[in-house]
Structure formats: C-alpha cells, structure tokens
Amino acid sequence: MSWNRSPLAELLGIEHPIIQAPMAGASNAVLAAAVSNAGGLGGFGGTDTSPEDLRAVIRDIRRRTSKPFIVNLYVGKAEPYVAPSRSEEALMAALQPAHIALEAGDPPGSLDLLARADEQFAVAIEERVPVFSSHFGLPAPSIVDALKANGTRVISTATTVEEAIQLVAAGADAVIAQGSEAGGHRGTFSSEPERAQIGTLALVPQIADAVSVPVIAAGGIMDGRGIAAAIMLGASGVQMGTAFVTCPETGANSAYVRRLLSADAGDAGMTDAVSGRPMRVLRNRLVDLLEQNRAHRIDFPEQLSMTRNLRKAAFARNDDEFLPLWAGQGAPLARALPAASLMKSLIAETERLLGYDESAALALAAL
Amino acid sequence: MSWNRSPLAELLGIEHPIIQAPMAGASNAVLAAAVSNAGGLGGFGGTDTSPEDLRAVIRDIRRRTSKPFIVNLYVGKAEPYVAPSRSEEALMAALQPAHIALEAGDPPGSLDLLARADEQFAVAIEERVPVFSSHFGLPAPSIVDALKANGTRVISTATTVEEAIQLVAAGADAVIAQGSEAGGHRGTFSSEPERAQIGTLALVPQIADAVSVPVIAAGGIMDGRGIAAAIMLGASGVQMGTAFVTCPETGANSAYVRRLLSADAGDAGMTDAVSGRPMRVLRNRLVDLLEQNRAHRIDFPEQLSMTRNLRKAAFARNDDEFLPLWAGQGAPLARALPAASLMKSLIAETERLLGYDESAALALAAL
Fold first, then answer.
1. Residue A212 half-sphere exposure, CB side, CA atoms within 13 Å?
2. Rounded alpha-carbon distances, angstroms, from residue B366 to A352, A355, B121, B363
3. Which among B229, B328, B329 has the least Cβ separation from residue A233?
4. Does the domain spanning B1-77+114-251+337-367 belong to CATH 2.40.110.10?
C-alpha cells in the first residue's frame, strides 16, 4: 500500500492522500468528519460563511473527528469594492422575475462578498486548523506566517506552472494542480483565464517537474482509476470535489445531487457570467439568464453577490435552477455512496490498480 | 511488460500500444516507419495530400518498414460546397499583406479541400493499409466495409461518450478518446463543440465504461507518466502527436519545431478561426489575423482553404507565423529526440512506472 507513504500523506498527517475538496456551499462538518475518519482529509469551504459560523463549523468538525481536516477560504482582490453601476440595475431587473417566482424578496444591490475575508482568516488562525487552503492565490504573508506558526499546513491552487511556482515562493507547503476538468471556480489568480484551462493529465506532470513540494491533482478524478492515474503523473495525492457532492452527508440540496447523478460530461460547462470569474457548472436557468445578460456583468465577487438571496431561496426550496450547480467533467462517474463507503471503494480501487506493489513504489521514488 | 499485452496491441499487431498520431502536415514516411520499426504504430495524415501522392507515401512507408502503420483521412461533410461569398472577399483582402510578405502570390478563392476524400479513401482501400483512422466521424459504410474486407483495422476519434458509442455502432474496431488537451483539430462530429472539450483524464474512463472495443487515450500524453496514467484510466493504448512533431524525422519545418520546444501550456489555445472547426494551436500572426476577421469566417474546410498558398509558402520559407502550429497542452514536455530514441524512452518510463508487474496486470484485467 505504498501510495499512502506519499510525501503529501506525511505532510498532512493522513492515512490516504485523498482530500475532499473544501467546497463552499456543498461541504459541511458531517461530510468533512466522515472523510477524515475514513483516513482521508475532509474539508469545509468557509467563504460563504460568517466568521462566527465558520468558528462553529470548525468546532463541530473537531467534535466529530480527532483527525486532521482542511478549511478553504477565497482570497479577495486588492482593489476596493466598485460602487453600484448601471449594469447592476440591469442585472437586478433581469433577476426580478426569478426572485418573484422563488419568493426571494427584491433583488439586492451588489456587495463585496469577500470583505470579511480577513476576519475569516483570523478565525482559521485562532482555531489552529490543521490544514488551510486558499483559492485565488495565497493570503497576505502575515496571514500565511501566522497559520504556519501554529503548525497549520498551508496549501493553495494553481492552474498553470507559473502560478505553482509563485505559490511555492510565497510559502505554500503543497500545491493543488487544478486541471480544466474541475468543477467550481477556476483557482486562476495570475494567468489570463483563457491560458489557464489546462487538462489535468497535461498540467500535473508539468507542475510536478517545476516545484519540489507535493503536488495534489484535482479535476476529473472520480474513482481509483483517476487516483492511480494522478499518482502515475507525479502527483502525491488527489483532491476530489464532485465525487463527494453526491454523498448523503453532502452540503448540497437533493435536487442538485439528482442533477449531478444524471449529468453528462458536456453538461458541465465553463462560464464567468455567474460570479465574474470562470467556473464549471451544470447549465441551468441561472446560467442561461446571466449569460444572456453578460453585457451587464460586473466584477467578481460583486456579480456573484447579486444572486445571494436568490441562491439562498433556491437552496431552501430544493430548487436546482437558480443556484450554481458546480460540477466537474467527471460528474457521470459520481456515486451516491456514504462518504465512508466511497472512501473504502476509492482506496480498494486504487490499490488494485497500483498492485500493492512495493517495487513499483521504489521505482516511482527513484524517478 | 504486461501493458503490451493489451487488446489494442493485439488488434493492431504491434509490440507497444503507442500510436504516433497521423498528423496531416507534420508526419511523413520517414517518421512513420521509424516509429513502426521501434515497435509502435507510425502514421501518416493524408488529408492534405493528393491521391497520387498518398499512394506514393504509403508505398514509401512499406519500403521502410515491414511493420503495421496507420493512415488518417478527414471525412468531408454531406452538404455541397458553398459558393464564394462577400466574407470570402473580405478574407482575401485581410490575407493580402501576408501573401505579399511571403511572396505567396494573390490570395486564392475558397475551395472544398475535402472534395477528393473519396479518391483518397479509394487509395487507402487499394493499398490495403494495415490501420486506417478517420477524423470527423467514420466514412460511408461502403468504405468502412471495403477497408475491413481487406483486413484493415478501422479506428476513429471520439470527443464525447456519445460519439464513441456512435463510432462503435458504425463498425469502429477501436476508439480514440481525444481529450481537450490534444493539439490539432478536435475530432468532434456530432456534439456541439462547447460540450466536447472534455479533459483526457475525465473522458477516457467514461468512454472505457461505455464501449467494449479498445480505447486509445489521446491529448496531453508526452512521456511514460502520461502513458501509465492512460493505462490506469482504462485505455488500452495511447496516441501521441505533439511528442513526435519535435523528432528530427518530423514533417514540420524547423521554425515550428523550435516554437514547440519553447512553448508553455497556455500558448496552445483553441480557435475555430483558422479552419472553421475548433483546433488547438500555438498563437501566431495567422491565428491573430483570422481571429480579428472572425466576423468573415466561412465554413470548414473552405475557411482553411483560404490560406492554402500562404501556408505552403510559410512552410517552404521556414516561417512560423503564417502556418498553423498545431500543439497540445503537453508541448512543454516535448523532447527533440530521434523517433527510435523517443520510443525507447517512452517504453522504459512506462515500464518503470507500471513496475513490470504481472500481478498488477492481472488485477487490471479483472476489473
């Protein structure tokens, strides 16, 4: 079972180098603890969560598991919040009928959803989370230093070789190589978006060649075949999002889970109309509406903030048309298994493919 | 060395299940024979070649190797050639300065580059090529039947699960699962292009689950890591294009090879402005010019035909700005090795990663 003795598993203190992607909106304490208790690294995406609630979730995870877990936060942009524009009014008008249909009140004006990021980072520091990951680059050096001073492992997402090199230079303990198959937001932070949609199979070995920290493959990995492939490509472990959304412990509503379980790969399309940054989601009425109004698109995260009440109402009503259905291109391989069973299957499939073979591991280590 | 005993290697009568992509414009008899003599399947892309010259190349390959090889042809569209339009005049005007600079004569009017496809298919049948592959779907049933009656193995490219199923239903002996990383034309023939850009790591297992013929992984595979990953994903072998363009035996000019060897993954972008169908190429002045004139874009292959003289002149002058520089997202991993050395390295890397392990192969076979 030599794939477990990977530098990543050692770095994170876990048995199997499988990270459940800490997905804002689709993760929770129950899912995170189930994955960690099964020997992987469960996680929670806290970007959508108030600092108080984030603290409560972290404490809830700790009540449910003594194993390491991961918390993810988005890094805000340096530029200040842009004041409401004429585009905003047009967006509000376009979104009005959906608000009425879902009894979501009047469409709200925009706000900077990441304005509270520094308070969220403070919670992660104070609560001494075992592993911290960021999207859209690393937080400020003082935050990275404070996390690391607590023994927190700090990792972040790269979508190009250049981004990986930048993250390592800024102190990342490991790098997530996010291939274009991945669901949710592209983690792109310093490349032009159209130059940063590189498939996992091409991206992982290029990043592995460029950095000396462990590389975590992400994007399209759904089963032992994907995990074994990632190991062959030079990854030290994997991060899987879509595969865990369909677990019964999910933070997603059941309508979203049903859509995922019947999706085909082509349904998971890329759009920047929902949030202002590229993300991969299943097409639904929200995507169609915001793409039709792409001329009025405002910046990230203000664009995403325009639908905050609508998404909340959709989630609560178990609607799958007016919230983003984040999905990777591996969605058709999703299984509706409890997290512990899924982990067991993933481990068994991977070990079968890797042949439990000590000599193979030694050959790998010699490369 | 159990990965060699794959159903694909058996089907094609080759020692190692590595196919050199039969790339129109970058392959030739010397490269094809070198790869076949090294135990892989060398190939020639004949779409740009007259029926007479195609016959000569096939005979030249046979003089250089007794091993199997592959010939690829594009399938034309059912609709008749569209007569010259006002767009065509605008394109000719836009292309005029480049024609002057490269002394390529006057920009020609459009023509249907695939008008001679039936004559090309006839040559492949008459010459009893060992392996035939097509892009943009399979040729007419009568052509497939005639090829197969000769013992020719017939394979074709799928970019979605649905396309793979269609190809098998139409008689394909194996299916190439072309991931979005791949250089050159997307083989998409029945899906909307934006739904058919699925990464190799996500696409291969989905197609492997859907069809019972051998699956050939393509897109982003450059070394033993990529090959071993493809095997883990359920592929029975691989097709590699970009990796062979930089061999000294290449059909590409040396300026193109130099660009490939210094490219990064983001340089290999997708565009439909060059030919009328999506392809992955390095950005150069040809791509920029045709994207600026995208409003005048005409159909495939007429759009591609607008640059036929310009591309010929660019090739001959060793120019890398006015011919399409097909490239996959794995380009940064390209090596300028002779084909026989490259094959040797690929095989050694793959066997090291797969651990020469019989038990692993048995486990794979049992899945």
1. 2
2. 10, 12, 39, 5
3. B229
4. no
Record: contact B195-A228, CB cut-off 8 A: no
Enclosing H/E stretch for A157:
strand A153-158
Complex prediction ipTM = 0.95
Is B229 in contact with A191 (Cβ distance < 8 A)?
no
Asked whether the beta carbons of residue A230 and residue B228 sit closer than 8 angstroms, the reply is no
Strands (E), A80-124: none
Q: How do the domains of chain A map onto residue ranges? A: 1-77+114-251+337-367, 79-113+253-333
Interface-testing mutation among B165, B194, B232, B358, with chain A (most A C-beta atoms within 10 A): B232
Q: How far apart are CA A209 and CA A228, in angstroms?
A: 18
Of the candidates B133, B137, B132, the residue with the CA atom closest to the CA atom of residue B162:
B137
| Chain A nearest CA to B193, separation (Å) | 9
pLDDT in tens, chain B (367 residues): 478 889 999 999 999 999 999 999 999 999 999 999 999 999 999 999 999 999 999 999 999 999 999 999 999 887 777 777 899 999 999 999 999 999 999 999 999 999 999 999 999 999 999 999 999 999 999 999 999 999 999 999 999 999 999 999 999 999 999 999 999 999 999 999 999 999 999 999 999 999 999 999 999 999 999 999 999 999 999 999 999 999 999 999 999 999 999 999 999 999 999 999 999 999 999 999 999 999 999 999 999 999 999 999 999 999 999 999 999 999 999 999 999 999 999 999 999 999 855 445 555 555 5
- What residues of chain A lie within 8 A of the CB of B355, using their CB? 355, 357, 359-360, 363
Model confidence, pTM:
0.96
Whether the Cβ atoms of residue B262 and residue B41 lie closer than 8 Å to each other: no
Helix axes A51-64, A117-126, angle to 10 degrees: 30
- Identity of the residue in A201, A266, A332 whose CB atom sits nearest the CB atom of B229: A201
Residue of B241, B349, B280, B339 whose CA lies nearest to B20? B241
